[in-house]
Amino acid sequence: MADEEIAHTDASKTLAKEVYGEKVVYDVAAGESKAVPWTLRLRALAAKYGAEEAGIERIPTELRTNQNPFDMFTLFASANVCTATLAFGTLGPALFGLGWWDSFLALLFFNIIGAIPPSLIATFGPKTGLRTMVVNRYSFGWWPSKLVALLNGVNMIGWAMVNTIAGAVILYDVGQTKLPLSVAVLLIGLIAIIISITGYQWVHKYERFSWIIMAVCFCIVAGFGAKHFVNVPMGKGPSETSGILSFGTAIWAFQVSWGGLSADYAVYMREDRKSFWVFFWTFNGLFWGGFLVECLGAALMTTVSGSPIFEAAYDRGGVGALLGQLFEGYGTNTRNFGYLIETILSLSVIAVVTANVYSLGLNIQTTSDALIKVPRFVWSLLGGAAFLIAAIAGRNQLQEVMENFLNVIAYWLTPWLTIMLLEHFLWRRRLGYNLEAWNKPSLLPKGFAAIFSFLVGTVICILCMSQTWWVGPIALGVGNAPFGTDISWELGLAVTAALYVPLRFMERKYIGL
Q: Can you give the CATH number for the domain in which 486 is found?
């Protein structure tokens, strides 16, 4: 077998059979022996032990499985039914000054609309057999798409960092401060990295069941917390409006960030899987998994305003201590039971960190053809090391990290998702995707319309942003000083759509593709 044939084969089992353990192969056509690159031997070794060795290459029809779209529900339900989602729900009362019912309504509305884009992106997986950032090439072209892949890679690292810290603070409470927070971060991160490097199949297996266990634990938390929850009244006036819209931006970002990887987990489904069911199950996993746990987080945060004891616990140890306080006052056995529940819940973030690190490896490969030769799991491993270092460094600032990171990613994700979905529904659904062009720059769009619309849309988002370190002039103009009102994603979406549609028509007319 020639080197070129080996390098471009998509059949993992064939690759493992023919290359594993062999440093030299005999090329019949050339009549000579050739050395097999170490990268191919490493990929074959991964396949031999059941790990996914494939990277961003298109998954052909013959390698598709009978995977059920319901797997998309279990995957995203597991990724959302975790302590990171619980911690996020607390931001409504804690950061944006909202009461119970306004937090509830904001979570309901913005989760519904936020779950739609990534659910639509997920349908691209079975139809194309391509990962999310590769499908991105069909609107952004070869070179601009690399910028998006880099941004999404940073997104994955940031999410892995936030989620790991969210689990670690619970484990820290279980250890009653004797277990260093840095060690808790390291433990959770390492488990997630190990699962993620094994690949697609094992990620799905883990996610298929973890959400059930975590859902039971959260029901127990809700039962213990019910008598402590307080119906904090809604605010009024401009400050309330600003709080709702700013919290809405964070909720939107929390959901749409899945758009950067949702197709990654559907590429092995058969092409004849109906898009409706892929969308339906992805949406339900994202919405219900996020909304219900976030509501519990908002309710948990109301205990702070209803009790000095809970307020002191929150000041002492944040969300982790607040969760632990629910089990106090019932005796030693109940408190020990509470520690067990907290321990299980601290590990819930493994489901989401696993998905982040898995897709991170794919993102890295998308930035350069040369990187495809190195197996995906190697890049996931290196990316995992990077997020662990960041998580250990930021372990004591969960709320600040979550607030700033969530809003920042919304500023570029919204224009990107707008372009991806417009491209699909206005052009690709009718004209289709040339699936042979995924790694051929000459057969892909130039990306002029996409990158211009993307950059302008992102700048508009920045002008509308409201952060502690920067308040855009538009945000300040529509809200009260000094923080204004964050309307970044709403205006960014509108401007990007208004630019991309006419520019893309012209690009197709005068340049083609």
A: 1.10.4160.10
Which of 174, 117, 131, 120 is CA-nearest to residue 413? 117
Which of 274, 289, 363, 348 lies closest to 115 in space, CA to CA?
289
Residue 473: Cβ within 10 Å count: 9
For residue 335, the one-letter residue type is R
User: How far is the C-alpha of 49 from the C-alpha of 43, rounded, in Å?
Assistant: 10
- For the cut 90, the answer to whether the pLDDT of residue 507 exceeds it is yes
The answer, yes or no, to whether residue 134 has pLDDT greater than 80, is: yes
Q: Report which residue type is found at 258.
A: W
DSSP string computed for 315-352: HHHHHHHHHHHTTTTS-HHHHHHHHHHHHHHHGGGHHH
User: Phi first, then psi: what are they for 52, rounded to 5°?
Assistant: -80, 120
Q: What predicted TM-score, i.e. pTM, was given to this entire model? A: 0.88
Query: What angle in degrees, to the nearest 10, is found between the helix axes of 350-366 and 200-225?
Result: 140
Query: What is the DSSP secondary structure assignment for residue 56, as one 8-state letter?
Result: S
Q: What whole-number distance in Å separates Cα of residue 157 and Cα of residue 154? A: 5
Q: Which tokens go with 240?
A: 């309330």
Same domain, 267 and 212: yes
Whether 72 and 43 share a structural domain: no
Q: Are the beta carbons of 256 and 114 closer than 8 angstroms?
A: yes
Question: What is the token pair recorded at 476?
Answer: 């300040």
Instruction: Establish if 60 belongs to a structural domain.
Output: no
- Give the chain's domain count: 2
Residue 409 CB neighbour total at 10 angstroms: 21
Where do we find the tokens 């529900």?
A: 73
Burial state string for 228-255 with b = 16 or more CB within 10 A and e = fewer than 16: bbbebebbeeeebebbbbbbbbbbbbbb
Which tens digits make up the pLDDT trace of 314-355? 998 889 899 999 999 999 999 999 999 999 999 999 888 888
pLDDT (average), residues 280-308: 95
- Indicate the range of 16-20, 401-405, 431-435, 447-451 predicted with least confidence: 16-20
* Domain-located, residue 56: no
| pLDDT tens, position by position, 231-267 | 999 988 888 988 899 899 889 989 999 999 999 999 9
Task: Give residue 7's domain range.
Answer: 3-48
- Together in a domain, 79 and 130: yes
